[in-house]
Amino acid sequence: MVNVHALGGAKMMSAAREALDKSGKKTKLIAVTILTSMDELQLSEIGLEGKVEDQVLRLARLTQKCGLDGVVCSPKEAPVLRNALGGDFLLVTPGVRPAGASVDDQSRIATPGQAVLNGASFLVIGRPITAAPDPIAAMQNIAAEVRNIHV
């Protein structure tokens, strides 16, 4: 799986899709929508007005139109995207934090279980594991939480 940024636009995403298809490899191509560390204020600072969810949906629709396999999005936007874009469109969700974990620089987060319930295809969990005193135990706890989800 490789990613590009959806803000690169349709021409860039279509070119990436074409190049990857020509390679003959069965690599999934996804696009980053809006970083999970960003909120409306930060979007406004870079000239994007409106709700984060609306921007994410707009970029995800463009990504799907360009033939990409999915997007990177917050687990908070996953239900809207899953409903709008279908079950086969990949939703890769950073901003996943176990209950009680530090949110660090993330603005739009969910627990692993909630991310799965929201429709995430893949969970991206970094610091809650890598910075844990016992990373293996942290990962095992997260895996247990996800296994106990009934979707």
Could you outline the blueprint of secondary structure elements for this entry?
Blueprint: E1 2-5, H1 9-23, E2 29-32, H2 40-45, H3 52-65, E3 70-72, H4 78-85, E4 90-93, H5 112-117, E5 122-123, H6 127-130, H7 135-147
Parallel strand pairs: 1-2, 2-3, 3-4, 4-5
Helix pairs in contact: 3-4
In short:
This protein has 151 residues and is α/β, with parallel strands linked by helices.
Keywords for this structure?
alpha/beta; single chain; 151 residues; five-stranded parallel sheet; TIM Barrel
CATH topology tier name: TIM Barrel
The SS-based structural class is alpha/beta
Helix content: 40-55%
Number of strands: 5
Please name the fourth-level CATH homologous superfamily: Aldolase class I
What is the molecular shape? globular
Question: Strand sequence of the main sheet, in spatial order?
Answer: 1-2-3-4-5
Number of helices: 7
Amino- and carboxy-terminal Cα gap? 25 Å
The CATH architecture name reads Alpha-Beta Barrel
CATH class bucket: Alpha Beta
Number of folding domains?
Answer: 1
Indicate the low-confidence ranges by residue numbers: none
Q: Mean of the pLDDT scores?
A: 92
Major sheet summary line: 5 strands, parallel
Rounded Rg: 16 Å
Helix and strand sequence: EHEHHEHEHEHH
Strand content: 5-15%
